[in-house]
Design goal:
Blueprint (H helix, E strand, L loop, with lengths): L1 H10 L7 H9 L5 E5 L3 H7 L4 H22 L3 E8 L7 H24 L3 E5 L7 H14 L6 E8 L1 H17 L10 H5 L12 E4 L18 E4 L9 H13 L8
Parallel strand pairs: 1-2, 1-5, 2-4, 3-4, 5-6
Helix pairs in contact: 3-4, 4-5, 5-6
């Protein structure tokens, strides 16, 4: 009975998070940028003898809830690892469904994002996406480009190693074309050629499903981020889990290599 109650509470946690608790958490200092590796959709479906796409659909609904929650608690940037460059290796039917999800997600959720002043950004190799997927994400970015609230940064067809190689190529081209002065390459210069050039690096990385690895995600940007791992599968991830991650972040001392 206790386990059933806990699951019910986690799924309905937002109803019990009062404004006073939110303000107390804000006063303690919420991370400006939270990055999440959303893992476990397929395992969630398999445990229920459902097709894997059912897990992805449930995961999409969690994206909506966590975006609302991040906006509510005052997080500036929420980066979600939605589709990696390695995910093309999955079965064709699953990939096709994943390419349709942004279209469905943005069709349903974009009006609310606009109303809440959320800016949508897509980080990845968009030119390699199917036309319908690319049109949907580019339209969302265009319609929200003037918004000044939470940045919902979706990493879609993204791989960190490819991003780093691309940045190095851009810098080399800039040197050749005279757009960069002669001199040593600095970390700041390199960062300015990454896909996150207009964002602060993540303060907190969350990964669901019990896996403890980065999976080619933001390898440069996560150099001094705090990591928080949970066994909870992404479709079961709740506001209560998000709060737990933030409170753990608040208990840590970030020294950036100093004393």
């Amino acid at each position: 009975m206790k386990a059933i109650w806990k699951r019910w509470f986690n799924k309905n946690a937002s109803a019990y998070i009062d404004s006073e608790s939110i303000e107390e958490m804000k006063d303690a200092g919420v991370p400006r940028h939270v990055a999440i590796i959303m893992d476990g959709n397929g395992r969630w479906a398999n445990k229920r003898s459902l097709p894997r796409v059912a897990g992805h659909y449930e995961g999409m609904k969690v994206v909506q809830r966590m975006t609302r929650f991040a906006d509510r608690v005052g997080i500036d940037i929420l980066t979600l690892y939605a589709f990696s460059t390695e995910n093309w290796k999955r079965p064709e039917t699953e990939v096709d469904y994943l390419m349709k999800l942004p279209v469905e997600f943005l069709d349903k959720f974009l009006p609310e994002l606009i109303e809440k002043n959320v800016r949508v950004n897509i980080m990845g190799e968009l030119e390699k996406l199917p036309k319908h997927t690319r049109n949907a994400v580019e339209s969302a970015m265009n319609e929200t480009k003037e918004n000044t609230g939470l940045v919902l940064n979706l990493a879609f067809n993204y791989g960190s190693r490819a991003e780093i190689v691309q940045a190095a190529q851009y810098i080399l081209d800039d040197y050749k074309q005279g757009r960069l002065p002669e001199g040593p390459l600095t970390e700041e210069m390199f960062s300015s050629h990454l896909m996150t050039k207009d964002m602060v690096d993540p303060d907190l990385l969350i990964r669901t499903s019990g896996e403890i690895r980065l999976s080619n995600f933001m390898l440069w940007q996560l150099a001094y981020s705090e990591f928080w791992f949970t066994d909870v599968l992404w479709p079961d991830f709740s506001e209560a889990d998000f709060i737990e991650a933030i409170k753990e972040y608040q208990r840590r001392s970030r020294r950036y290599g100093g004393l």
